[in-house]
Amino acid sequence: VVETGTPDRAVVTTCAYCGVGCTFRAEMRGEELVRMVPWKDGKANRGHSCVKGRFAWGYAQHQDRILNPMIRASVTEPWREVSWDEAIAYTANEFRRIQAQYGRLSVGGITSSRCTNEETFLVQKMIRQGFGNNNVDTCARVCHSPTGYGLKTTFGTSAGTQDFDSVMHADVILVIGANPTDAHPVFGSRMKKRLRQGAKLIVIDPRQIDLVKSPHVEAEHHLPLRPGTNVALLTAMAHVVVTEKLYDEAFIRERCDWDEFQDWADFVSEAARSPEAIEPLTGVRPADVRAAARLYATGGNAAIYYGLGVTEHSQGSSTVMAIANLAMATGNIGREGVGVNPLRGQNNVQGACDMGSFPHEFSGYRHVSDDGARAMFESAWGVKLDHEPGLRIPNMLDAATDGTFKGLFIQGEDILQSDPNTRHVAAGLAAMECVVVQDLFLNETANYAHVFLPGSTFLEKDGTFTNAERRIQRVRKVMAPLNGHADWEIVQLVANALGLGWDYAHPSEIMDEIAALTPTFTGVHYDRLDAEGSLQWPANDAAPDGTPTMHIDGFVRGKGKFVVTDYVPTDEKTGPRFPLLLTTGRILSHYNVGAQTRRTANTAWHPEDRLEIHPNDAENRGVKEGDWVSLRSRAGETTLRALITERVAPGVVYTTFHHPDTQANVITTDYSDWATNCPEYKVTAVQVGLSNGP
Ligand code: SF4
């Protein structure tokens, strides 16, 4: 922990790690950051923080930062440091050459959920206005794209329904596929506070997360389901709600389509979907499913919080809709203490999605085929826009290996580490003629890059992040960019080299354009954010003070939509060669692939990823605590040390993925969500055996 010296100034800004969005005072002495102090007036954190936001900012001034642009004609050549002018001109020339040679659709880009709203808005604008296509995607593809699909389909908008304070009004808290005390610690603490006050807890998770049993908190029901069976279990809970007539008929008749409810009710009430019938699939005792369903439906205000254990499945979108069905059926939507709440992983994944980072949507989730929305952007940007959705990240990689996609601009994402089936990602990148990586460090993806544009940290720029409760908060520059340019300036340089003629002098001007073009943001301006601290969208004429709770008087789409979600087993099967199921998650001290936290003192708290394995499975393989084991799947193999624990059930193993040596995504498969292509990270059939180490 580095906390030295006496500060001479302080700047209030927002944490760049998780979707809680804690506010801090960055205390500075000259250009040196002395410490980060959680800010008491921060509306998301109210003076609290975790060990990441508080202590893990050392990466910003780490010696591994790349500060000068670099180019190379081929990835077999060494990098050559060049001026910003040369790097920008080379980038623009290459994209124009590729489009002239291979066509308009042969290039695209990826926005970063680590960057600000303004920066992601500019990347998608550059692609739509400058490349003339919709080939833009974002890391939400591999995390919360099913949330976007599922909540938009059922409720009409792709966002959580509540603010964090709402949890203090919940009588029943259902946590499914999330581990808030590790992955969203400050919100996890608030949840525990409510539980200590007497709220009841239901946890649906293959693993015994801390919330299941920790000092002063114990779950009423833990349903340790077999990975990949979320839809079957949620449907069985719905079966209980419907067959025992625990649903809220008045709410459904007033707020939802009654005929659709009846179709759904007929479906879930079939005997094949009872808790008893699905026990062989889920492994969960029917009595526990029935008790949990009764508690959720009748225990008062019931709120659902979920994470990537819901979305990163072949039925991720179906699971989100099954959750929404349950909430609507029991009337747990549209007031404090209830709702459906995705816990967003990255600091600005909500914002990146809001800003039009998907290949089918402009900012504010309007489809590119919507003539009115397109006309608005065409008028503002002075170009004709494509009405066809563009390529998703996996489609870009497929098209690259097919020879039709040749140029990719990647802002702040290490897709070689973070996306599934590493070999396929590598093959796609290797087949491209121009890969541009804009990042802080020479990440794994940069091994396949032709241009490296050094990025800036959250401490070096102005902008906004939007957290998991739709709260838009200011990011404020506390020091000059070490690389000479904030990320938004770099995108503007590339755009202008492409001939787009942008002249933003400050990110506030980008936000003014976002507000002018995005109906849910029309009331969002920097002067208001500075005066009020934050705003939760929608913030517009209909909701001048912003919107802490959504769908109060009606759903955004009008009537809430019940969707029949039939359980379809994943194609990833266990068998004699691969008898165990691997699932993955995070630990408190680290963040995602660890590019930042591994370059801080936090590494001392968790120096390596370990494989959690049940004592029975370990004994059967002769594995003892701390032994090196090989972890093999149909896709690949890696090696790590064993941690023997009853947190996982027999037949299930678990690891974190914060260290590149673990190479968890060498193991994961190509299977993905049927609606969004979100990878099925949470279910991989594996075998574990003793190993001599890496
Ligand atoms: Fe940062 Fe999230 Fe920790 Fe808050 S809870 S300090 S936003 S990592």
Short account of what is shown:
By secondary structure, the protein is α/β, with parallel strands linked by helices. The protein is 31% helix and 18% strand. Bound molecules: iron/sulfur cluster.
Model description:
By secondary structure, this protein is α/β, with parallel strands linked by helices. The chain folds into four domains: 53 residues, Single Sheet (N-terminal domain of TfIIb); 263 residues, 3-Layer(aba) Sandwich (Rossmann fold); 197 residues, Dimethylsulfoxide Reductase, domain 2 (3-Layer(aba) Sandwich), CATH 3.40.228; 111 residues, Barwin-like endoglucanases. It has 23 helices and 28 strands. The strands form seven sheets. It has a seven-stranded mixed β-sheet. It has a six-stranded mixed β-barrel with strand order 23-27-24-26-25-28. The chain has a five-stranded parallel β-sheet with strand order 12-9-8-13-14. Strand 6, helix 3 and strand 7 form a beta-alpha-beta unit. The two termini are 30 Å apart. The model has no long low-confidence stretch (mean pLDDT 92). The structure holds iron/sulfur cluster. The site of iron/sulfur cluster (SF4) has 14 residues, from helix 1 and helix 6. Belongs to the complex I 75 kDa subunit family. This is Formate dehydrogenase subunit alpha. Keywords: 2Fe-2S, 4Fe-4S, Iron, Iron-sulfur, Metal-binding, Oxidoreductase, Repeat. GO terms for molecular function: 2 iron, 2 sulfur cluster binding; 4 iron, 4 sulfur cluster binding; formate dehydrogenase (NAD+) activity; metal ion binding; molybdopterin cofactor binding; NADH dehydrogenase activity.
